[in-house]
Amino acid sequence: MDDDDLRRGRPTNHKVFGEGHAVLAGDALLTEAFGVLAAADLDPGKRAEALALLAEGAGWRGMAGGQALDLEGETLAAYDLDHLRLIHRLKTGALLRAAVEIGAVLGGAAPVERSALRAYGEAIGLAFQIQDDILDATATDADLGKRAGKDAGRGKITYPSLLGLDGARKALEEATETALCHLASLPNRNSLAAWARYLALRAK
After folding, report:
1. How far apart are CA 55 and CA 66, in angstroms?
2. Where in the chain are the domains?
3. CATH of domain 44-202
4. 142, 6 in Cβ contact below 8 A?
5. What are phi and psi of 147, to 5 degrees?
6. Predicted TM-score of the model (pTM)
7. How far apart are CA 155 and CA 190, in angstroms?
8. Which region, left, alpha or beta, applies to residue 9 given φ > 0 means left and ψ of -120 to 50 means alpha?
9. Is residue 106 a contact partner of residue 184, using CB atoms and an 8 Å limit?
10. Per-residue pLDDT tens for 79-128?
């Protein structure tokens, strides 16, 4: 949707195969995700709950809804930080939240643990998008494996455009700390904590 030429240093699907095939590939992969989960050897109740979480994270209440707001935002002269946070929480945060919460459901986490993991997923999703905004403004095409500076070129509102780079980095640190705080009461949290810290370090 951002009409970028590159992802991970390689030509994007729509540049190689055309827009129609790229849309179909995305549709097929999303549908396959539901198929894989539906066919998994799981407790039927947990499987149904996991499928519902995936639908929430990928659909209009999550990624698709956030992407729609992001596209709409390109036509707006300005919007505030709360609106940008909403876009980020939906666009990426909802999918990361779903991934973490599905793990909690399938792993039999207690309600308080599941709540903490859901909150962690939301915070790490926000951190991921703030980091992406910072890198778009500071990194090179080679560093990113995609075109840098495209947000400014499309007139998009970002954390650096609203807060400056220092303010955006501070917001990233705050989102990271929020994520780590939600993990504090959980066992076996080292991998999730390392992931949160890695995101923060990438943008420095």
Report:
1. 14
2. 44-202
3. 1.10.600.10
4. no
5. -70, 120
6. 0.85
7. 38
8. left
9. no
10. 889 999 999 889 888 989 999 999 999 999 999 999 999 999 999 999 99
